[in-house]
Design a protein that fits this description.
It is a single chain. With about 700 residues, the protein is of the alpha/beta class. Among the domains are: about 180 residues, Rossmann fold; about 180 residues, 3-Layer(aba) Sandwich (Rossmann fold). About 55% of the residues lie in helices and about 10% in strands. The chain contains 30 helices and 14 strands. The strands form 2 sheets. An 8-stranded parallel beta sheet has the order 3-2-1-4-5-6-7-14, with helices on both faces. Strands 10-9-8-11-12-13 form a 6-stranded parallel beta sheet, with helices on both faces. Helix 7 packs antiparallel against helix 8, helix 12 runs antiparallel to helix 13 and helix 23 runs parallel beside helix 28. The N and C termini lie far apart (about 75 Å).
Length: about 700
């Protein structure tokens, strides 16, 4: 470092500023420290020294330097802005807001101060005030694209996506190469449900800043949502650059490859994913991790890490909302809310609709449904709207939805989405209700401090696995999963029309593709080899997925023609086809859930191997409560042996089908009045504890 004495501080500053502009912060800090010894009363040198220290993450030293700069140059706006930035880095936006507002009183309308104030207000989730600050700043600097982009971000947080889009496009007219503007436009279009347009915006951002992994990652999410899964895989892979620790991209890449039956390189990626969970790397999606062969303890670690990030990011919003607890008369019905994106022709709606209809007769509960996705106007949605009070919150932000829930006086709120799909974790992290329950959609522990209970039963959450759940465990005396018992089974098309052979055993697995892993598929092939003339009926997948499975079958010595693929069908048409299935083969580590209920209701025997996690024990719970424990195996070998035995014994399969059809009238599994009574009793128990000021505890109801 050249330490030649300078004749005046301006010369030293002239040497220091280029070092900072070039990003050589180590050299800049060393030079500034020496220059300050020569000119100890020069405020700008102290300020620039503080800036260099800030860039080097030496915050305590930066604090000392900047406070000294403030003493030497009390009128310096730049010093106050730097001190506010330091407060922001120390996660104290309120201190930054106070300092910048004081600075504004001395320098009214200063664009840089207004921009810094807006950023601090955004960090504190005071979005309306942030919008005002950014808007005032744009008057002083109308051609500053960064200011207008911040204004767009504030509008988006307020739920004003259309206005946000206008501002974002104005920014792009001013600065078409501004990658952050293209990315924010992508977020805005995503909020409007315009997946392909959002993907295009993220692609433009990636072209401008290829080193930023977030651009291809978000593009992948939109391609995924739009059904272009093969293209999404390539986008996720680009986000997972060599040496990257981007947990979100890794988990989504593995999950997408599983849905495509693209098993090339999957073992190594899965190994990396397990290591990411072991290292508590942020961003690994808990739902995607359920498809991995992992212990319940590993799943809890994954969920806890993911929840921690959400808890931290939503803390400012939670503080600003300041929602007061719902207060109810001791004799008033307990107001129970259910938040879901599936209140329609969706797995969730299909499972819960008959239960809600049965609950409508229970005067001790007042049922409210909060639909976070638009209505499909189908028959399930209509039944749900008749059975309970429906609140359409699809266009609301999470804070707005939380207000709606609290305004309805909800005391107990069930999360029927969890970490699945678009998820609802951010909403529940705002503590929309005083008692919150994880149920149905996400089969595992949330790992979240905002979730008080998980609703389960003794099969899916046995006492031996209690420590693997962060919530208190609320167990029903029957299977935790309800059913729609009003479904009528239509006559199916012929075997030939379904693409099935006229004779031979029909095995089926209509589970989602991510549940059929290489080991599970190998088990299926061993079964086909030992049951002559049998076929395996599967759901058709996207982008060459069927051909990949056919190729795998051939590798394992099974003719590709013995795999039959069914396209996605309306639920009633799909349900009718179970009449042609002799035996449904379940999967590990993630069982059939809604699909298992469909099979059993249709009279189709289902064979499972009980797993070690919630997701791998659901089918066992269904069979246990249907009185068919003989179809629950303990090992993979026993699973294959039983499948072969049944596949070669058509008489036994016919007996099992007859038994199942009888159980529709007798089994507690399909008794929704009984389920509603048990459910009501459980809700009353946890609601009474809340009203009495008692904390959540494990309960067997």
């Amino acid at each position: 470092m050249n330490t030649t004495t300078h004749s005046d501080p301006e010369a030293a500053i002239g040497r220091l500023v280029p070092l900072l502009q070039q990003g050589d912060f180590t050299a800049a800090e060393a030079f500034a420290a020496q220059a300050r010894k020569e000119f100890p009363f020069e405020g700008e040198l102290a300020r620039l020294h503080g800036v260099a220290l800030l860039q080097l993450q030496r915050r305590p030293e930066a604090q000392i330097a900047l406070e000294r700069a403030a003493e030497l140059a009390p009128a310096s706006v730049e010093v106050q802005c730097n001190l506010a930035s330091l407060a922001m880095q120390n996660k104290n936006p309120d201190a930054a807001i106070e300092r910048l507002r004081a600075t504004l009183r001395r320098a009214p309308g200063h664009p840089a101060v207004l921009q810094g104030l807006g950023n601090a207000l955004m960090a504190a989730a005071r979005y309306s005030q942030a919008r005002e600050s950014f808007a005032m700043a744009t008057h002083g600097a109308p051609q500053n694209p960064g200011l207008r982009l911040n204004l767009a971000a504030a509008e988006l947080q307020l739920g004003h996506a259309e206005q946000a889009e206008i501002y974002a496009r104005e920014v792009l007219q001013m600065a078409p190469s501004f990658d952050a503007a293209h990315a924010l436009l992508g977020h805005i279009l995503r909020a409007q449900g315009r997946a392909q347009d959002a993907a295009d915006a993220y692609q433009r951002a990636e072209r401008l800043a290829p080193a930023n992994p977030q651009h291809p990652f978000h593009m992948g999410l939109m391609l995924d949502e739009g059904g272009r899964l093969d293209a999404a895989v390539h986008a996720y892979a680009r986000a997972l650059q060599p040496g990257s620790s981007y947990g979100a991209a890794l988990s989504q890449l593995v999950f997408a490859k599983r849905r495509l039956y693209d098993w090339q390189g999957l073992d190594e990626l899965s190994k990396q994913l397990h290591q990411a969970v072991a290292d508590s790397r942020e961003g690994v999606t808990p739902f995607a991790f359920l498809a991995e062969t992992a212990s319940a303890a590993e799943q809890r670690r994954c969920a806890t890490t993911f929840a921690r990030g959400i808890e931290q990011s939503t803390a400012p919003q939670r503080q600003q909302l300041g929602l007061s607890p719902a207060i109810a008369r001791p004799d008033a019905p307990i107001r129970v809310g259910f938040a879901a994106d599936g209140f329609g022709e969706h797995a969730t709606g299909l499972l819960v609709v008959a239960m809600f209809e049965a609950l409508a007769t229970h005067a001790e509960l007042e049922i409210h449904l909060f639909a976070t996705a638009p209505s499909d106007h189908g028959p399930i949605r209509q039944r749900l709207e008749t059975a309970a009070q429906m609140h359409d919150v699809a266009k609301l932000t999470h804070p707005q939805t939380a207000y709606e829930i609290r305004a309805a006086g909800i005391e107990v709120l069930f999360d029927l989405t969890g970490y699945c799909g678009k998820g609802s974790a951010e909403l529940f992290a705002l503590r929309a209700a005083p008692v919150q329950v994880n149920w149905l959609a996400y089969p595992g522990t949330s790992g979240a401090p905002w979730m008080d209970y998980v609703l389960a039963d003794a099969v899916v959450v046995p006492a031996s696995q209690r420590t693997d759940y962060s919530e208190q465990v609320l167990r029903l005396p029957r299977c935790f999963q309800p059913n729609d018992t009003t479904r009528v089974l239509a006559a199916p098309p012929s075997r030939a029309e379904c693409g099935l052979p006229m004779d031979g055993t029909v095995f089926a697995c209509f589970n989602n593709a991510y549940k059929i892993n290489p080991a599970g598929f190998a088990r299926f092939m061993r079964i086909l080899q030992q049951v002559p003339d049998s076929v395996l009926w599967l759901l058709s997948g996207p982008a060459g997925a069927d051909d990949r499975l056919r190729a795998q079958a051939a590798v394992q010595g099974v003719s590709a023609e013995r795999l039959v693929f069914m396209p996605r069908l309306p639920h009633a048409d799909y349900l009718a086809r179970f009449a042609h299935v002799d035996l449904f083969l379940d999967t590990l580590p993630y069982n059939a859930h809604t699909t298992a209920s469909d099979a059993l209701w249709a009279g189709c025997p289902l064979l499972t191997c009980i797993g070690d996690t919630f997701a791998g024990r659901v089918a066992a719970s269904l069979l246990h409560h249907a009185g068919l424990t003989e179809l629950i195996t303990d090992t993979e070998e026993a699973f294959v042996a039983m499948a072969c035995k049944l596949g070669n014994d058509r008489a036994m399969l016919a007996t099992l089908r007859e038994h199942l059809l009888q159980q529709r009238e007798q089994s507690p599994l399909f008794d929704m009045r009984g389920f509603a009574a048990d459910f009501s009793r459980a809700v009353q128990a946890i609601g009474a504890r809340h009203r009495a000021g008692q904390p959540p505890i494990d309960l067997d109801c």
